Fold:
Amino acid sequence: MKFYNNVLELIGNTPLVRINNITKEHKIRAQVYAKMESLNPGYSVKDRIGLSMVDWAEEKGVLKKGGTIIEATSGNTGIGLALVAAVRGYKCIFVLTDKVSVEKNRYLKALGADIVVCPAAAKPGTPDHYVATAKRIAEETPNSFYPDQYNHPANPLAHYRTTGPEIWNDTDGKITHFVASIGTGGTISGTARYLKEMNPNIKVIGADPYGSIFKTYKESGHVPEPTPYLVEGIGQALPTGNADLAIIDEIINITDRESFDFARQLGRREGIFCGGSTGTIFAGALRVAKDLEENAVVVFIVCDTGEHYLTKFHSDEWMKEKLLLEPQRMSAGLIIETKNSGAPAQLVYVTPEDTVGHALERMSESGVTQIPVLEDHRSIGSLRESRVLTKLLQNRDLLESPVSEVMDESFPVMEVDANLSDIKKKLQKAPAVLIEDFKRITGIITRSDVLELQK
Ligand SMILES: Cc1ncc(COP(=O)(O)O)c(C=O)c1O
Structure:
């Protein structure tokens, strides 16, 4: 029989996968490989440290039978710890911030953990900060273990013992550049230490969100004021014990837009479904690779699975709300669906038999200055307030006339999957476009709706 004794035996030994389509498009000659940490049983790189920190605690006698593991986590370390806890019979309490995706929060609960959520805006050192909260709960909970992944030596050690050797062996020692993010710093510091021991010429590059402190801190020794960013699990407001910045050759800052764009591209163009931090790292890897020759071997970490972010950056609606959606993905249907902050808008229209007076009332009630004229869900004309009022000045009796007598030509009609650039072209000539789905007019997009998207 071929089997594993428990799920923990599936941690590590993740494969390298070559990137093909995106590198070709960017005219990259170097070989670029993804280290697929998303294939761990908890779908992230952090399974490795969940296991190593619990092994350490058991060895040292810190964690005893029936004990509780308490940790501050952006989710993935919690998942790694919860897997070990499930297999070995411990309880778990995890403290997250409200920035953590609902998917990771529910995943942790499904693995049997209790969750406490703190505001992401709380400053380090204040009582509401998620790390301070985890520490306090650990102090108050008997027979508990607080790993403190930011400072625990078993975190980088797991990567020194496993991630580094796997990359070295799988590349036959040919790796020239290693690119990773810096959250706790465990992955990059531990892996880099092993790789540089094997070959000190290997370059180690950290990819970090704009707003995190690491780049400025490494280059100047000064800790700048952090600013918010959307990518989860990486970057910090303060240095961590496990981020050995001296071993990192260069830190590259990456925007949220680039991170999410590259993470989405990895799914669509390489079939690698990943989280936002992987997008940050891949953006950094491409920047490094573009100046390298054919014999260069760049390895980057795929930190976790895209499944954790289906309601976040893998959702077009979320991307649009954050003003980050790629213009070619901005379809007419999506614009209509989300234009009233998500509330489905009723299309305001009149029929050709309605009176002009009624049409003016409809426009004024709904705060619109133009209105489509529909018959059986098809567009047959339009009314514009200013033109109707000009006609009324000449003949007030028109108020009682049917709309069909005064209406102008219909607004242009476009399909629900029309893209933003085509919609914009139409709006240069017409004040609004109507959107058709299965031969029925279902919505209207005006010039101001499009301007709103570009604010
Ligand atoms: C999604 C994600 N990416 C990257 C990292 C960074 O890994 P490390 O803490 O080893 O620096 C983390 C850490 O929590 C993470 O959750």
Observations:
- DSSP finds 16 helices and 15 strands in the chain.
- The chain has a mean pLDDT of 94.
- The longest helix spans residues 154-170.
